[in-house]
Amino acid sequence: MDYSMEYKRKLLPVEEAMKVIKSGDLVQYGEFVMNSSYLDAALAQRVDELENVNIRTTTCPFPPKTVLADPERKHFIYNDYHMSAASRKLHDKDLCNYVPLTYHEGPSFYERDYVAADVALIKVAPMDKHGFFNLGTSLSLTPLFCDTARTVIVEVNENVPICLGGCRESIHISEVDYIVEGDNQPMIQLPELPISDTDKKIAAIVLEEIEDGACLQLGIGAMPNAVGAMIAQSDLKDLGVHTEMLVDSFVDMYEAGRITGRRKQLDKCKMVYTFAMGTNKLYNFLDGNPACAIYPVDYTNDPFIIGRNDKVFGINNAIEIDLYGQVASESSGTRHISGTGGQLDFIIGSYYSKGGKGLICLTSTFTDKEGNLQSRIRPTLTPGAVVTVPRSINFYVVTEYGIAMLKAKSTWQRAEALINLAHPDLRDELIKEAEKMRIWVRSNKIV
């Protein structure tokens, strides 16, 4: 069947397409690097015509022009399911709000009609001969919010890689209301994060835990990147991938022959993910590559799905941990930094996995604005800090001073294990606080 006539019928100038949006609408943007700056800029031109338009996205990597055009938030109210650095800066200026989300539950928000978009604005690859537009590098919530949207508008961009699934990696022209041909901006490149010597020490401890045939999940940040770099240079064999985020280090591991997926129990030989962010090295690797399979997040991050693979290693960062074992990964006190994301999903899922380990990794200290050394392992979390992983669910904790498994440990055993991971100069003070908190006994010994 020839879909060219339908394509032409639905093709509009961007200014005409944006007229679909009315005051009071909920507008769903794309996700991660599949956010359309082209559609956003066109919508921003209508700032004085609209009021109370709610915009939702997932980790938009740039500050939207709709937001910058409306610093008093009379016209556009911007919300993010998982904060990017750009969203974090907007949040500091009271120009962005977070939508709390346990990541694997996101699609159910739309299935259960808790939220429905009036208009979905997404970026896609050019239509293929079968009438499908590939959704590119981000699939986590996109199929579900397109299902429930009153109107779906796609921006065609020739630089979007064709990411194979999986499931629901494309949208058919029959499901699209309007088509806009954009400016074909190149895919957004993520800057390479500097890896510190401390990151390398933590990564080396993590590497000692990983076995042949392990199935990897890496979170965002320099330390997980350091783990990936070390794995690429190791002699590990037949590693698998089941992750939420695919980054450049997975390409390095695959090309070094470390990743085959042959020992996976589910999606054998496939690198499973729900979104990808990185550089052109990653995007070129993904383009038409049958070794990779993109899925919606209610598959990739479902703890019961995660647990069906053996030896799942979930490797994630944190901001701070208290002596009870509570993990704060999304705020520093009341300052919002990030979202829950998939950290909780993969800590739970790794525990269900035979031989799995969910690892919360963090440097033991940081230097505050006054130049003082502060511990990231604290007696209690900073007031206002949001708990990302409850103490009952936390599994392993890693700093540059070692690794501790917290399951089945009492409060005093946890305190001892965590203080052993703190900076040596700060341990005595932590012991004093643990005594005040009644989570210390005389038999405790600190290495």
From TrEMBL:
<keyword id="KW-0276">Fatty acid metabolism</keyword>
<protein>
    <recommendedName>
        <fullName>Probable butyrate:acetyl-CoA coenzyme A-transferase</fullName>
        <ecNumber>2.8.3.-</ecNumber>
    </recommendedName>
</protein>
<dbReference type="InterPro" id="IPR038460">
    <property type="entry name" value="AcetylCoA_hyd_C_sf"/>
</dbReference>
<dbReference type="GO" id="GO:0016787">
    <property type="term" value="F:hydrolase activity"/>
</dbReference>
<dbReference type="GO" id="GO:0006083">
    <property type="term" value="P:acetate metabolic process"/>
</dbReference>
<keyword id="KW-0443">Lipid metabolism</keyword>
<dbReference type="GO" id="GO:0005737">
    <property type="term" value="C:cytoplasm"/>
</dbReference>
<feature type="binding site">
    <location>
        <begin position="219"/>
        <end position="223"/>
    </location>
    <ligand>
        <name>CoA</name>
    </ligand>
</feature>
<keyword id="KW-0963">Cytoplasm</keyword>
<dbReference type="InterPro" id="IPR023990">
    <property type="entry name" value="Butryl-CoA_acetate_CoA_Tfrase"/>
</dbReference>
<dbReference type="InterPro" id="IPR026888">
    <property type="entry name" value="AcetylCoA_hyd_C"/>
</dbReference>
<feature type="active site" description="5-glutamyl coenzyme A thioester intermediate">
    <location>
        <position position="244"/>
    </location>
</feature>
<dbReference type="GO" id="GO:0006084">
    <property type="term" value="P:acetyl-CoA metabolic process"/>
</dbReference>
<dbReference type="Pfam" id="PF13336">
    <property type="entry name" value="AcetylCoA_hyd_C"/>
</dbReference>
<dbReference type="InterPro" id="IPR003702">
    <property type="entry name" value="ActCoA_hydro_N"/>
</dbReference>
<feature type="domain" description="Acetyl-CoA hydrolase/transferase N-terminal">
    <location>
        <begin position="4"/>
        <end position="186"/>
    </location>
</feature>
<comment type="similarity">
    <text>Belongs to the acetyl-CoA hydrolase/transferase family.</text>
</comment>
<keyword id="KW-0808">Transferase</keyword>
<dbReference type="InterPro" id="IPR046433">
    <property type="entry name" value="ActCoA_hydro"/>
</dbReference>
<dbReference type="InterPro" id="IPR037171">
    <property type="entry name" value="NagB/RpiA_transferase-like"/>
</dbReference>
<comment type="pathway">
    <text>Lipid metabolism; butanoate metabolism.</text>
</comment>
<dbReference type="GO" id="GO:0008775">
    <property type="term" value="F:acetate CoA-transferase activity"/>
</dbReference>
<feature type="domain" description="Acetyl-CoA hydrolase/transferase C-terminal">
    <location>
        <begin position="278"/>
        <end position="434"/>
    </location>
</feature>
<feature type="binding site">
    <location>
        <position position="342"/>
    </location>
    <ligand>
        <name>CoA</name>
    </ligand>
</feature>
<comment type="function">
    <text>Coenzyme A-transferase that converts butyrate to butyryl-CoA.</text>
</comment>
<dbReference type="GO" id="GO:0019605">
    <property type="term" value="P:butyrate metabolic process"/>
</dbReference>
<feature type="binding site">
    <location>
        <position position="319"/>
    </location>
    <ligand>
        <name>CoA</name>
    </ligand>
</feature>
<dbReference type="Pfam" id="PF02550">
    <property type="entry name" value="AcetylCoA_hydro"/>
</dbReference>
<keyword id="KW-0378">Hydrolase</keyword>
